[in-house]
UniProtKB/TrEMBL annotation:
Keywords: ATP-binding, Cell membrane, Membrane, Nucleotide-binding, Transport. SUPFAM superfamilies: P-loop containing nucleoside triphosphate hydrolases. This is ABC transporter, ATP-binding protein. Residues 21-250 form the ABC transporter domain. It comes from Oxalobacter formigenes OXCC13. GO terms for molecular function: ATP binding; ATP hydrolysis activity. InterPro entries: AAA+_ATPase, ABC_transporter-like_ATP-bd, ABC_transporter-like_CS, ABC_transporter_ATP-bind, P-loop_NTPase.
């Protein structure tokens, strides 16, 4: 999909070549408050990676650091072989916040266009890309609607489209579907899996919902209470699609619940 060339990654030697995000002893304090301590793991290219943990364990702070919104106090991380601080011009990380943050004064199309605002793509290429991604999330008929005219699930799709329009290598999501009703949430799970299959992007998402983690993720990191540390990384070795009626999935969910 798409025409923008990916940067040639330069991987460090001490991690496998297939790791797209590498974290080394990452720590963050807010004043006296220790929020993240010695976060040390790697996320593989193309995997769906979930982070669970109690409220206040630093999950959002973690995503804020990876996305470049916040700076860590110590430690380092690399994405696609690039160290933090070398990201200028590297726009291949999309960040979907917990709230959809749609601009009420812009139509669906113009909200999606927002994701491309700071790129050097030509006008025609931008338009084609926006149309493509609006189609991709099934919003073709609603491109000219205003945010207040569409449902919660559709708003979620717009937020997803706005993230995908830059063709991210890495999609970060902070409890993206938590405000949706169970049925819409489950629809969005299917949608995300379909888009993941299609693009091969790496997805890193934070959730309170252990079921959501077990249904979607290849691996789940369990953060400990403050300061957030990685207690354990759990492999979810189940084929997709995963049905909640499946006994293996139920067992995985029970196991994860015990670890939080
Ligand atoms: N900008 C900030 N300034 C000061 N303290 C902050 C800031 N951002 C977060 N914190 C504190 O850091 C801790 C971790 O916050 P964070 O939002 O990362 O937790 P979380 O795991 O995402 O929680 P939740 O599950 O409730 O979303 C909290 O105690 C919070 O009060
Ligand atoms: Mg949070």
């Amino acid at each position: 999909m798409g025409s923008v060339a990916y940067l040639e990654p330069v991987y460090s030697t001490d991690f496998a070549r297939s790791n797209i995000i590498e974290l080394k002893s990452l720590s963050k304090n807010f004043g006296e408050l220790k929020v993240l301590e010695n976060i040390d793991f790697a996320i593989r290219a193309g995997e769906i990676f979930a982070i669970i943990g109690t409220s206040g364990s630093g999950k959002s702070t973690f995503l804020n650091i990876i996305s470049g919104l916040l700076e860590q106090d110590s430690g380092s991380f690399r994405i696609s072989g690039k160290a933090s601080g070398q990201f200028s011009g590297w726009k291949r990380i999309a960040y979907m916040f917990q709230e959809d943050r749609l601009l009420p004064w812009r139509t669906v199309r113009d909200n999606v266009a927002f994701g491309l605002e700071n790129t050097s793509l030509g006008k025609q290429a931008k338009k084609a890309r926006i149309d493509e991604v609006i189609d991709l999330v099934g919003l073709h008929e609603f491109a000219d609607y205003w945010p207040h005219q569409i449902s919660g699930g559709m708003r979620s799709r717009v937020a997803l489209a706005r993230s995908l329009v830059i063709e991210p290598e890495v999609l970060l999501m902070d409890e993206p579907f938590s405000k949706l009703d169970a049925q819409t949430r489950s629809q969005m799970h299917g949608e995300l899996l379909r888009l993941h299959d299609l693009t091969g992007m790496t997805v890193v998402f934070v959730t309170h919902d252990v079921e959501e983690a077990a249904v979607l993720a290849d691996r789940v990191a369990v953060f400990s209470s403050r300061p957030g540390r990685v207690k354990e990384i759990v492999d979810v070795n189940l084929d997709r699609p995963r049905l909640l009626t499946d006994a293996h999935l139920s067992e995985q969910i029970r196991t994860l619940r015990k670890k939080i």
